[in-house]
Protein: DNA polymerase Y family protein
Amino acid sequence: MAVSSPVRSLVLWFPDWPVTALTRDGGGLAGGVPLDPRRAVAVVERNLVVACSASARAEGVRRGQRRRDAQARCPGLTVVPADPTRDHRAFAPLVSRIEERAPGVQLVRPGLCALRARGPARYYGGEIEAARVLVDEMHGLGLGDVRAGIADGPFTAEQAAQAGASAAEPIFSVPAGGAAGFLAPLSVAVLDASSLGAGPPASSAAASADLVGLLARLGVQTLGEFAAMPPDRVRERFGERGIRLHSLSGGLDSRPVEPRTPPPELHREIAFEPPLEIADQVAFGMRVTADDFIAGLGAIDLVCTELRVELVGDRGERSDRVWLHPGSFDAAAVVDRVRWQLAEDVGKPGEGGTEGGLLRSGVALVRISPEAVDAASHHAPAIFGGGPEERVHHALSRVQAMLGHRGVLTPEIGGGRWLVERQVLVPWGDRHATGKDGIAAQRARPWPGSLPDPLPTTVFAEPVPVDVRALGGETIDVDERGAVSAVPAVLVESGRRRVIEAWAGPWPVVERTWDPMRARRAHRFQVVDADGAAWLLVCEGDVWTAEASYD
Structure:
């Protein structure tokens, strides 16, 4: 069977990318402490160092070390757990920038990408010149250490970038036909470390490590020694995977560069010149853009369930907010969100997750982008319609469009120790809000002192003043140890005297002891009067109030 010859490939390698991603993606450690690029940092996965900073390397920390050994070499080492999501998130914009200069990029892993050298070389006047353009582009983005390797086949190009290039000379080119000679002195360990030599997905990294370890025990230390072994004996001993690695060792990398398919551009934006001052003018100007935004999603069978709206003022101020929808957005709903964001006080925190500040000048730019999408098939109407829920949604959406975002409110259960805090009214469409400050997150927090189920049926918006006294008429309070001064016998509510037949408590509620201005210490009681009505009472100092009643 004929084997295709290696294709000239160009590989860009970003050394210690997990550390670089940690610096670029927010630039902070746990607790919000800023990350100093000169700090000794090690990224650890499964108790092994996968990347380290130059300062850590100077102290003897190396990739592959155990965490304990790395900390012994560098006592001041900052250990950060590996986060593949962070690495991909920080690397994706760089791949997009590379594609602007040279299309057809294969994303191998965060920190390593490959592309065919022929196209960029013809455009920029040579392979070295093309690599220089890409490296300079990355330097312009603040990445000082980027290595480029050019060779026959992506595997050899990867080794050229890692073993041949340096910080002083970041570009290394292996002449055509010289791959075998370049690879010969390299250790067989690179077969295990290489991402481009891993083979098809069905091949495991553990199998490569076992094969490399066996070669070392057999006395085969370099790629040249492995390439000199007869192919038939290699196949007989190591199988097809061994033949694949044997070909790589000899510079016969027949795998082509497999460029990624760039993600579609789903966001849309519109600039206003001159800037518009009136919200209705902005909404009217957004209609065509909103139609185009929804049509672009529909072309790839998607719908938008969370919409990000960014408004940029003429003076550079910004308003950025994510809007939710109980179903999926259409063009009219997108225009409504833009109008509502302009109409509301977008600088007020705590209303639906608003970020940013007030727009103090005209709107110069509006950008809309999907924060979350879903398959259009999940939102297709049923054969006979969606029933009552669909009619309710259309009715409330029409009322909301006329009255504004907060014109239609729906109840949600929130978090808190006091019952009135757990009643939250949110705008229609925002009821699924979750996240750091979302309703679901608030409700899920531990609330020591909160009332367990079953909860009262009537919760007073404002506590109702009451008076609780003992049988002899003396006022009842609770001391610091939680002891009741006397047995509750009479409840006076709205001027009506009620005899207490049964009572339970007290249960303490202690809040914000660290803040003298907001600290609160109270005790709850449950009482039943002679008429059979049950009450939830709160004693705070010597003041009694009714928080709720059990109907």
Remarks:
- Residues 200-204, 345-357, 432-437 have pLDDT under 50 and may be disordered.
- The first strand starts at residue 8 and ends at 13.
- DSSP finds 17 helices and 21 strands in the chain.
- Residues 268-380 form a domain with the Dna Ligase; domain 1 fold (CATH 3.30.1490.100).
